[in-house]
Design brief:
- 40% of the residues lie in helices and 24% in strands.
- The protein is built from 12 helices and 14 strands.
- It has a 5-stranded antiparallel β-sheet. It has a 4-stranded antiparallel β-sheet with strand order 12-13-11-14. The protein has a 3-stranded antiparallel β-sheet with strand order 1-3-2.
- The longest helix is centred in the first third of the chain and has 23 residues, at 51-73.
Length: 338
């Protein structure tokens, strides 16, 4: 009878955790019953050679790689090293897979659970899931903090999501973490073509459902904020240290909000079609019905408001100030030209 996958993964994990030294694929194949049962120990096949031995080795390698990836996704830290004979070997060090004494109250546990569920569409999803698995296994999560329904842990009927669909998100996230300069092509909302930008990335911020990168623009020698959806083509990393100091997190967040239009210094009046522009209505300081399917709104006016209004297309008409109306018209014309 074939050994169940869960048992095979458990045996592999115990073998990696219990070994006193890193083990090669060959040693793991000969040590774990499920592999021996499915593919043999490997020693006889290696001695006889032939196509059968090669096929068996390839099949084992594919299964082993899948098992290793599954264990890593479950939270087991497996290091790939080179042993004394120069062969690739694997080890799961106990100090890397052990948490210090930890006790979370219900509110803290729920907050961590919510944070983990947020990353449903990004590379962080697997890491967040693995972290929660470790916390549960270590007993750091209080019983009942995240109730179970149907065998799965539930966090309530409202599940937060931070979408990260842009292809630029992952390379920029890694560049921010590793403090590596990047190069990418960027098309401003009022420009018909992209242009090359060399940036020292500071942080990524999500604002109104859109991701923004805050950093130092080397070409303009000033801090800038870039909307990820306007990055065209791949993001390429560059070697070398940052040339400008990195500000603290609070300053970066304020920069993002200011460039995205949050730092309003005055107000603007717009016409908004009924039943449209709910984000604008949520920020409105005053609203008045105009009739014939239109409302008049007074909204905060700061840097970036013109780019935001363009997104609502024919549902918005700027009344004043005149410079905002001109900026919106220029952006619409640029979009129409392609």
């Amino acid at each position: 009878m074939a050994i169940a996958k869960a048992e095979r993964l458990m045996n592999l994990a115990l073998c990696l955790l219990g070994a006193r030294r890193p083990l090669t694929k060959r040693e793991l194949r000969a040590s774990i019953e499920a592999y021996v049962e499915a593919f043999g120990s490997g020693e006889a096949g290696a001695a006889s050679g032939g196509e059968g031995a090669t096929g068996s080795q390839e099949s084992f390698s594919r299964m082993f790689e899948r098992d290793k990836d599954d264990l890593r996704e479950l939270g087991l830290v497996i290091d790939t090293v080179e042993n004394l004979d120069g062969e690739t070997a694997y080890v799961a060090r106990r100090d890397s897979n052990r948490l210090p004494p930890l006790a979370l109250d219900a509110a803290e546990a729920t907050a961590l659970g919510l944070a983990a569920r947020v990353w449903q569409q990004a590379r962080l999803a697997a890491a967040a899931s693995g972290a929660l698995q470790k916390l549960h296994a270590a007993g750091g999560m209080p019983p009942g903090a995240i109730p179970e329904q149907g065998g799965e842990r539930q966090l309530g009927t409202l599940e937060p999501h931070i979408p990260a669909r842009e292809a630029a998100f992952e390379p920029l996230m890694l560049a921010c973490r590793d403090r590596r300069p990047v190069v990418f092509d960027y098309r401003k909302s009022n420009a018909a073509r992209s242009e090359r930008r060399q940036v020292e990335p500071w942080t990524l911020e999500c604002w109104r459902g859109h991701w923004y990168l805050a950093g130092w623009d080397r070409g303009r020698q000033d801090e800038r904020v870039f909307r990820l959806s306007r990055i065209t083509g791949p993001v390429r990393s560059r070697t070398g240290a940052f040339s400008a100091p990195v500000p603290d997190q609070v300053t970066v967040r304020e920069t993002v909000e200011r460039w995205a239009g949050e730092g309003a210094t005055t107000t603007a009046r717009i016409k908004l079609r009924e039943g449209a522009g709910y984000p604008l209505r949520a920020r409105a300081l005053a609203t008045r019905e105009l009739g014939e399917g239109w409302d008049e709104l007074e909204i905060p006016y700061g840097h970036g408001l013109d780019a935001w209004l363009v997104e609502f297309g024919p549902d918005v008409v700027v009344l004043d100030p005149a410079e905002l109306r001109a900026d919106v018209i220029d952006r619409l014309r640029a979009v129409a030209k392609g």
